[in-house]
Design brief:
Elements: E1 10-14, E2 19-24, H1 35-50, E3 56-61, H2 72-78, E4 101-105, E5 108-110, H3 112-118, E6 122-126, E7 130-132, H4 146-154, H5 156-165, E8 169-170, H6 171-177, E9 182-184, H7 189-203, H8 206-219, H9 224-239, H10 242-253, H11 268-272, H12 283-286
Helix pairs in contact: 4-5, 8-9
Length: 292
């Protein structure tokens, strides 16, 4: 299914406060996911990652839903046919970016939409938000790495429950499961998420944020000695940086810090000596041809 208005399927609004609001914008299709929408999403995030004015990203959905998964029209067209994933990027591609991502989940969040929320660093939910893995009830399997991600966020037993039953979870239960970090009234959702993002933008060093994001993702996939070695390398660079001096001086003076924007050349992996596992491979090429 081709999205005729794909360039507007993802909206970007950058505020003077350093917050980039990224909105999934196909409300007439409940923000159902398409390959064209996916390409635009990563195109926008790449621009945001290079923009020195942006310090934190908030992702939300237009209208009454976040993202209920793949567009139902697309599901209808691919059913019973060989699946070609050539050139596609999974949601975990967001790990390549250096700026914190906050999900503001409104309404339905299912399938790939759920994975999009899971790869964000912090998740806010409106009280009317509803979550489901959905895959088992569509005759599908755990897609986009969800069987790797979900147990690491909420634990193996809870992940098994949500994946095997594909039951619907409301916002309050999502909070109790650890699926989301905050649950707020729907009319306060975006304000709450942006306020939280603004606190980070004002008080935290962009280099620290980029490094911490890298460490969290890399350490989840390594052992403790490797994590410690990488941390020592990062610490050595950090104590020599202007950001550390500014962090100390602002704390002693009781004022807000003035941290420099994130330089385009700053690459956490080059400091720690660790690269995240390759997640952008072409699945079609990796398996010797189109998936079927």
């Amino acid at each position: 299914m081709t999205d005729p208005d794909w360039q507007h399927s993802i909206l970007l609004e950058v505020g003077a406060d350093g917050i980039a609001l990224v909105t999934l914008n196909r409300p007439e299709r409940r923000n159902g996911w398409t390959p064209q929408m996916e390409a635009r999403f990563f195109e926008v995030l790449e621009a945001v990652d290079r923009d020195p004015a942006v310090r934190v990203v908030v992702v939300t959905g237009a209208g009454k839903t976040f993202c209920p998964g793949l567009d139902t029209g697309r599901l209808d067209t691919i059913a019973g046919k060989p699946l070609d994933l050539t050139g596609r990027r999974p949601p975990v591609h967001t790990w390549q970016f250096r700026k914190p991502m906050i999900a503001a989940v409104n309404g339905a969040c299912a399938g790939v939409g759920l994975v999009l929320a899971l790869v964000c660093d912090v998740r806010f939910a409106g009280r009317k938000a509803r979550f489901t893995t959905a895959f088992a009830r569509r005759g599908l399997v755990g897609e986009y790495g969800v069987t790797w991600l979900l147990p690491r966020i909420i634990g193996a037993g809870r992940a098994s429950d949500l994946l095997l039953s594909a039951r619907v979870v409301d916002a309050e239960e999502a909070l109790s499961l650890g699926l989301v970090n905050r649950c707020v009234d729907d009319d306060e959702l975006l304000t709450a998420a942006c306020d939280y993002a603004r606190e980070i933008a004002v008080h935290c060093a962009p280099t620290s944020l980029a490094m911490l994001r890298h460490q969290l993702q890399a350490d989840a996939q390594s052992d403790l000695p490797t994590a410690l070695t990488a941390a020592y390398r990062a610490m050595t660079k950090a104590v020599e940086s202007p950001d550390f001096r500014e962090g100390l001086d602002s704390f002693v003076a009781g004022r807000a810090p003035t941290f420099a924007p994130l330089a385009d050349s700053y690459r956490p992996q080059e400091i720690t000596g660790r690269r995240l596992p390759e997640v952008d491979h072409d699945p079609s090429a990796a398996l010797g041809g189109p998936l079927s």
